[in-house]
Amino acid sequence: MSGFADVAKKVDGSFKSATSSGGDADSYLSETRFDQCTISPLTLKGIKAAGYEKMTLVQEASLPFILKGKDVLAKAKTGTGKTVAFLLPAIEIVSKLPPVDREQKRLPPINVLVVCPTRELADQAAMEASILLKFHPSIGVQVVIGGTRLALEQKRMQANSCQILVGTPGRLRDHIENTPGFATRLMGVKVLVLDEADRLLDMGFRKDIEKIVAAVPKQRQTLLFSATVPDEVRQICHIAMKRDHEFVNTVEEGSEETHSQVRQMHLVAPLEEHFSILYRILTEHISEDVDYKVIVFCTTAMVTKFVAGLLSELRLNVREIHSRKPQSYRTRVSKEFRESKGLILVSSDVSARGVDYPDVTLVVQVGVPADREQYIHRLGRTGRKGKEGKGILMLAPWEEFFLSSIKDLPITNATKPLVDSDTIQKVERALGHVEMKSKESAYQAWLGYYNSNKNIGRDKNRLVLLANEFSRSMGLDNPPAITKLVLRKMGLSNVPGLRAK
């Protein structure tokens, strides 16, 4: 146990932040090994089989308290190993419980409930649990998320063992209200985990969380992980946690909000050049790194679809992920990207927060992000777990206002790549092959997105001129027509330059 027993004494703020320490690839790791910790041999075997030997800082800081059964509020950034920090002790608790008696067989209790803000995060946590449970075959983990049929989940939970349940708040509330016997099963919860608590609240899940907290026993352990601890998170702590809970802080005060290993750059160019420049950025990056793994973030789902279509026509190895795709497709693509190299993922903000894609080498953000936080979350997909990464923000000249909101970050001016006439022709040809329907949807979505941005949407005449500039960048001489109803909803009826249908 050397070094481990004293961890509790030096928790609050004295650790280097996993994300703000130097470029050393192991900088997010502590010196403490998992075999120095009081966990059962089978769980330890699972940890080793998963390839973990040393704990990360958040694991080293929180595990002593969690294993003692304390409620813990842990302030920790994403990509620092917090999923294992709550799953490991949860598995330990379940493994020590007596077998289910005959009366409980019909509605076997759920012992651990993990609440995640997004479907992707829930899938990821469940997958991590399955890996750690390799030598605990009798412990079952299941996931319940929106976008799948409720009846299907009800059947699955009934048919397979489910001591650990991971879910999104809305779907969990759905089961509490509509699945017979579910509320009874929740009376067996020993550990409640709220993951990415700040994000849960940002997304408006407070009412759902309150409902979930009310549905589980008062005598339980509660673990709450959050990258930031604003007042709203403290209020949830007050509702969900014991008064004597431990606060573990692995984020060094005043540490950078973004990973210092990520080289951040911005590039300003006219819209008409964006697609050729994007193509050059990607081809140059691919030629420099055979194990490239790139995420290109776009402003909306339909713009994402269009850009993915264009890059596919340009013969790049591309996958797309956005809210218009069914959940089963998103899960499959997410898994493929996580496990692959030599791939470009074109994404809307559905992938911006929390999802842990290892070894992302480059993040490109095309167009102005919704806000500073969104920029930081997107950038956080690279430079994880001590690895280096690169981020490029591509803006049009009239989007430069956004730079003032991130001027305190270490972002530099990128050199515009040289785009020769062959590249321009190649991109123009590819644009000609992207289907018209995709361009029409992208134009309308683009118009809607920038219309809602107060810096750009205020002047409707200028907004339409810019939208038509975007239309030309897609290779269209005439902007696509939009229905009168949609134009009325956007407050754009009778604005010159728009075509109504």
Automatic annotation (TrEMBL):
CDD domains found in the cross-reference section: DEADc_MSS116 (cd17964), SF2_C_DEAD (cd18787)
GO MF annotation list: ATP binding; hydrolase activity; RNA binding; RNA helicase activity
Which E.C. number(s) belong to this protein? 3.6.4.13
Top-rank EC class of the record's enzyme: hydrolase
Q: Which residues are in the Helicase ATP-binding domain?
A: 63-247
**Alphabetical list of Pfam families matching this protein:** DEAD, Helicase_C
Domain named DEAD-box RNA helicase Q: residues: 32-60
Q: Which reaction does it catalyse?
A: ATP + H2O = ADP + phosphate + H(+)
Q: Where is the Helicase C-terminal domain?
A: 281-432
**Keyword Zinc included in the entry's annotation:** no
Specify the superkingdom: Eukaryota
Give the location of motif Q motif in residue numbers. 32-60
Q: Which UniProt keywords apply?
A: ATP-binding, Helicase, Hydrolase, Nucleotide-binding, RNA-binding
Q: Any notes on this protein's domains?
A: The Q motif is unique to and characteristic of the DEAD box family of RNA helicases and controls ATP binding and hydrolysis.
- What does the similarity note say? Belongs to the DEAD box helicase family.
Primary role: RNA helicase.
Q: Do you know which PANTHER family this protein is assigned to?
A: RNA HELICASE (PTHR24031)
Q: What is this protein called?
A: ATP-dependent RNA helicase
Species assigned in the record: Iris pallida (Sweet iris)
